[in-house]
Amino acid sequence: MVDLLRGRALALGDKQAFCYVPGDGTAQATMTYRGLHERAMAIAAELQRRAPPGARALLLFPPGLDFIAGFFGCLYAGIVAVPIAPPGRNRFAWSAEPILEASQPSLVLSTARHCEKAAQSYAPARLLERPWIAVDEIDGDAQHRWRDPHVEGEEAAFLQYTSGSTSVPKGVILSHRSLLYNAELIREAFGNTPESSAVFWLPLYHDMGLIGGVIQPLYCGGACTLLPPAAFLQRPVLWLETISRKRATVSGGPNFAFELCARKVCAEDRECLDLSSWEVAFVGAEPVRAQTLDRFSKAFAPCGFRREAFLPCYGLAEATLMVSGGPRGSAPTVISVRADALACHEVQDAPRSDPTARSLVSCGRNLPGQRIVVVDPETRCACRDGIVGEIWVRGPSVACGYYERAEATALAFRASRADTHDGQFLRTGDLGFLRNGQLFVTGRLKDLIIIRGRNFYPEDIEHTVERAYDGLRAGYGAAFSVDGENEERLVIVHEVEPRRRNLDTHRAMQAIRHAVAGDHGVEVHAIALVRAGMLAKTSSGKTRRSACRERYLSGEMEVLAEWKADLEGVDEEMADEPALPRRRVVSVGEVEAWLTQRIAARLRLPPAQVLVTTPFTEFGMSSVDATEIAAGLERWLGRSLSPTAIYNYPTISALARWLASPAADSRSAATRPPPRPSSENLDPDQLDREVQRMTGEEKEQFMLMLEEMAQQERQ
What we know:
By secondary structure, this protein is α/β, with parallel strands linked by helices. 36% of the residues lie in helices and 19% in strands. Helix 1 (2-12) runs antiparallel to helix 2 (33-50) and helix 2 (33-50) crosses helix 3. It is globular and about 70 Å long.
């Protein structure tokens, strides 16, 4: 990887490699090949002074080009990079601390602003004890002190962590050699060239964003434009506008991204799009749905999008990134099979007119130099044609294992077939079958939950649930996903303590939704509180989640209380949000009424339960909920708001007061914290009620704001 970037810098020099476009409309930032090479050398020189080769460095960056510079700075120093998600409001403790413990980083890389923010707010003591390096403050002259680490191909480039809190995190060791080999597979499948132009909104700490959006363009000598993920969620059309404006040839994402655009981008916005340059629209990271491909193709065909641009693919971090995909330029292969037979792991064709049939989208062909086999997970023998089994992979792209996890590595990366005694296969944990050389993925053998392209481990969610409310039986919950119309959805089944039959089930389920949304940023689709003894367990006491899922869907459990989201009409209501005719000033009452109605609709709550003095965190909103409500608010007000605007104030009442203030219109909330109202306009009784309902962190921040406001008024 070091030789790759150095060679590109020499050959391409001042050609733009990356461009970052913030979602708030501010000026874009760019980086050339030479500029990245020089910044990487300067950062590496500082890292070499602070840590030995082979040490780990935690990459904790907000979206932007500094992440790319820090990542290559690690590679140039012989340091193993450990990218992780930047913290959310309530998620840092569960997402970062186990990875910190597992990887034992010697350094933490970030930006100066993010370092300061971390020290003042979320960072735990164990993280602050380590040296922090602000890569944007390193002098460019430091590049002259850089020493080539002369890394070998088999050495680790970075660790891709795939787990979170209560389960021990598993860091996939990705070597320089596996990265380069997989980059070549992607180049061949996509047909990328130095003239290729990509657009990515996927987070760079995730393998698809980092390898697809950073390493692949660099490998091909092309260019890539990056968008912040939150900006895409708030305004999906921004992704398509950027493809149109940049004349991009390559872009893609999980199935939900295309579904979101098909549902949310209105006819007026589509009229301004030209997607005729889009040659490769890859779809991966979660099940690819035929209905989504149809809906997106139909919606954007008038914009020049061609169905043949779709390139469904399959991959996983343990195989670096891509396992199958292509060929480019042909419409995706879709087959129709009997759903009842598929439930028994048999593949039987069905007429497409059969309403009970299930449509399956091919994830493309096997890629050169590797082998895919479908194996019975119990017998470890190859499955005969027409039988679904576990997908096993062998090839140069497969990682060497998990960092400091010898047992887990042996189980996942050292699988051997019983019928041929071939060893060293990667067990993907995914189910599927091969037909005419194409791979079809049908489900998962493992319990991993994938929603909107994000991986969730059920034990993490179950741990959150059992602590959410007193009276829930510890160790007796199951989290799993069910197949919705357009995406997978999260279901939670949990036993109630035998002596707590008088449990307030309404409050318990509300607490569960709140806790899961706060800790994991995902929306719960359904909750079933069941009597003790309902959950299926193994002889050793482990939860049999697949059996729990089957019993839940068949209605075999004795349910004490159940809640299920009512999805009817919510998306349509939010999509058809009328905009005020550039009306900048609204009353507090109007904003409160709008927010109450939209939060109730979004979260499937009776409007009477959405009180204006209740903190947003208590509604159980996920990050996607908050972002999409902010997007609707932006359209209604006719002004630009930050994707996180809904979190700048703790309650509907507080947010409404700011939005109704003329001062709120002077500058966008996207560019700075919103101005606070004068203390003369605060109702003391209402303020006291709001402060009493705040969490400790919110109360501290609110009191700091009041102190700052008082100081400004004294001045």
